[in-house]
Amino acid sequence: LAKGVGKATWRRYRNELHTEMVERLALRTSLLEAIDDEQFVLQYQPIVDVSTREVVGVESLLRWQHPERGSLGPAHFIELAEESGAVVSIGAWVLREALQQFASWRAADPDLPLRYVSVNVSPRQFRQPGFVDQVRRALDDAGARPEWLLLEITESLVLHDADQVWADLKELRALGVRIAIDDFGTGYSSLSYLRHMPVDVLKIDKSFIDDILASRQQRALVDAIVTLAHNLDLTVVAEGIEDGAQRELLDLMGCPYGQGYLFSAPLWPSEIPTLLGRTTAVAA
Ligand code: C2E
Ligand code: MG
Ligand code: MG
Ligand code: MG
């Protein structure tokens, strides 16, 4: 009997695996058409001052409006896009779109308190030859100032292929573009290395923020990162703040900026001016 159950389980498992592979293959193919078919859209999540809750910037977050599968978050396709190389053209689209959107918000309202738009850049996209020029052109074409752009890169990117990557990071910063390390704390940067990294902002990963109330160790770690960043003249953004007690604690620690459902989920572009109280809310 046990053997029979084992076989049935195995068969089901094999079928699931097969379905998964077929789905991945289908997604991979349709990724390439998705740009031309304008199936990608960006949402924007506010980044706020932890103590005043004022919105200071937004992070662009990619969504794929798949014709059959509905709206897909990056978890469903970014890895595939990175593997297949599609992430290079998708990333180029994201950069242009986010800058154009931001420039149009600023043009419509020059007093808008939004200081910057944060754009996620995948390692493969960053490493492509000519990435710095691509950024320069995207800024020019959008009529955007370099200070309006914050590029979020991964810890692993800064640690590997250091020479070319570091040269490009320095060139971008010389332009006036700022650089953030996303999901900080999940990689392996040594603290002494951090002192020399050509970056401006550390985004503390949500997994650290999740436990700051329950775990004294996690709290100590976040506190140490905030202090260290302050002493190295780096800015900090805490990711994934979901409740008021987390916000209070981070505020006490001196963490300047935060992002999370407590303040706002990612929003559609049209919701941003409304959130900032800039236009009268339009009834749905
Ligand atoms: P990330 O850059 O660390 O972005 C934060 C993620 O956490 C977003 O998920 C956001 O919706 C989610 N989030 C924000 N606040 C909260 C919170 O309070 N609670 C919880 N549970 N989640 C929160 P999303 O949009 O699914 O994006 C996932 C990841 O995909 C991003 O992580 C980023 O690494 C990547 N990604 C997003 N857009 C792009 C893009 O345009 N290009 C590339 N290469 N990667 C992107
Ligand atoms: Mg990010
Ligand atoms: Mg992040
Ligand atoms: Mg994260």
**Strand runs, count:** 9
Total helical elements: 12
The hetero compounds bound to this protein are: ligand C2E, magnesium ion
**Largest sheet strand order:** 1-2-4-5-6-7-8-9
What is the 3D form? globular
* CA-CA gap between termini: 59 Å
The mean pLDDT is 92
Approximate strand percentage: 15-25%
Helix content: 40-55%
SSE sequence, one letter per element: HEEEHHEHHEHHEHEHHEHEH
Low-confidence stretches: 280-284
Structural class: alpha/beta
**Rg calculated over all Cα atoms:** 21 Å
Largest sheet at a glance?
8 strands, mixed, barrel
Domain EAL: 24-280
Protein name: Diguanylate cyclase (GGDEF)-like protein/PAS domain S-box-containing protein
Notes on the protein architecture:
- The protein is of the alpha/beta class.
- Helices cover 50% and strands 19% of the residues.
- It contains twelve helices and nine strands.
- The chain has helices at 2-36, 78-84, 86-108, 123-127, 131-142, 155-159, 162-175, 191-194, 206-210, 216-231, 244-253, 271-275, and strands at residues 40-49, 55-66, 70-72, 116-120, 149-154, 178-184, 201-204, 235-238, 257-258.
- An eight-stranded mixed beta barrel has the order 1-2-4-5-6-7-8-9.
- α2 (78-84) packs across α3 and α3 packs parallel to α5 (131-142).
- The site of one magnesium ion (MG) has 4 residues, from loops.
- This is Diguanylate cyclase (GGDEF)-like protein/PAS domain S-box-containing protein.
- It comes from Actinoplanes digitatis.
